[in-house]
Amino acid sequence: MTDTTLDSAAAPVRTKVRRRAALGSRPVWLQAFDSVWLIAVVFVLWWVFSAKSTNFFIPSLQEILASLGGDLGNGVILAGAAYSLTNLAVGLILAVAVGIILGIALGELDRLRLIVDPIINFFRSIPQAALVPLIIGAFGVGQGPKIYTIAFACMWPVLLNTIDGVLGIEPTIRKFSQVYRIPKWLHFRRVVLPAALPQIVAGIRVALPIGITVMVVSEMFAATEGLGFYILNSSATFKVSETWAGALFVGVIGYILSVLFVVFERRLLRWYFASAAK
Amino acid sequence: MSVDTREAGVPRTVTQLMKVRGMSMSYGTGTAENKIIENLDLDVDTGEFVSIVGPSGVGKTTLLRCLSGLLQPKAGTISVGGQEIKGPHPDLAVVFQDYSRSLMPWMTTRENVAFPLQGKGRGKIERNALAEKNLQAVGLEGQGDKYPWEMSGGMQQRVAIARALAYNAKVLLMDEPFASVDAQTRFDLEDLVISLQQELGVTIILVTHDIDEALYLADKVVVIAEKPATVVDEIETGFGDHRDQVETKADPRFAEARARILHRLRAH
């Protein structure tokens, strides 16, 4: 087996550096317009075509938004969102911490990577949502098991991308670290971690929507709180417009989080994007 | 006038700093063994500038890796100040060929220069002061807040030189340090290294395939050739402290030494 066993199997996500450069010459207002017009068209079409819907399971958008507005107003959705997002945040933080630490260890230690490689590929291939009832069954119905499930699912992209990032470190930089006798801990913190960071952040970006999905699914089993519970409960009581409202709200949260993430990524990897633009 | 001191055995008044005896290096073992360097001797005095010149692919990079402690030779000894080298050593610093890969793009130039000092346990104020001082020495005063990728290739290599100087090693090893810059920048960097060497008294071993560069910079040129590589000639250049890109290269001794080196390299 070679060094590339893990990354070829994992097909990690590359960061998109060049994509923005191609758009560079167009005016800002036009770019802003381009990023919103399609979604506006979709909503208008949805509104128009669902307006006279008689299908019980496809209520009109007007009804859905009315339910959303109502449950936002009375705090039901926001209380659920607070619970869900807490689970997501803690789960993601755990996933990122474990993924980076394990990833750096596996990236640096060839022998360990060789040994653990099959296990990693086995576990990452298991559908994460399928584990939800098992984990909750095994560890109980509280908040903890939901957080662990999110953490477990989100760890894989972070772990695999960290390994890939560590393996991709410029050999000259490694030689520099050796010749100048950089102590191990300093080497990990100031050389390996920043060098692998673009790949790590790309892994976190992939983990985010996975986390949102698992967050919702985890609240559909033995839960009394959260957005997943709101969706499941409304559907069980045939309040279909609330089910739609919940799904729509999760979508909006996902969108907002991904936008915030891009801002965070640009700040954290300023050197990376700036040097790539040269 | 060129004198082969190794065979002549001229008594030295200066102190010897680096000594290599019977060094051999190979990759693989048994029938697959690929001998790169065999039975190589090298002497470097304190404050001396030694160029090691040889054709591409002769094993110069392997030699430099052995000298820097990155590779362990299969046979022979390398010592600095009487102390045998078994791995990377605080008395040895390296300027790598590819500046764009050896500087860290997530650190400013000041941080790049100061970073190895953190490994030596120096405090932040001292590190930054040393970084600033050495950036100034290479002509990059006040550029510490810039990132390497905001600079030209020549400036980046100056940062790499400042980093090596700040490390305060006794010997500076340079691996074709000017191979990836344009000709004018190359001359500037050559002159910079000469003046730094004279001001700071640092000992430099520079590996290059460029005969003119080897001669222009060095007090002593060591010619390596053959397969496996070994020392085939040593020339004391004798140009003294004053070097000039035009004058020195027009010196009859320069032409004579260059002809001799070319002859040696062609013979093998």
What do these coordinates show?
- The complex is a heterodimer of chains A (278) and B (268).
- Chain A contains 14 helices and no strands.
- Chain A has 278 residues and is mainly α.
- Chain A has one domain (80-276): MetI-like fold (Orthogonal Bundle), CATH 1.10.3720.
- The longest helix of chain A is centred in the last third of the chain and has 35 residues, at 184-218.
- Chain A is globular and about 75 Å long.
- Mean pLDDT of chain A is 86; it is low at 1-19.
- Chain B has a domain at 105-168.
- The radius of gyration of chain B is 18 Å and the shape is globular.
- In chain B, strand 9 (220-225) and strand 10 form a beta hairpin.
- With 268 residues, chain B is an alpha/beta fold.
- Chain B has helices spanning 5-8, 60-67, 99-102, 109-119, 124-137, 153-166, 183-200, 211-217, 247-250, 252-267, and strands at 16-27, 34-45, 49-53, 75-80, 83-84, 92-95, 171-175, 203-208, 220-225, 230-236.
- Chain B is 37% helix and 24% strand.
Brief sketch in words of this structure:
Chain A is mostly helical and 278 residues long. Chain A is 80% helix and 0% strand.
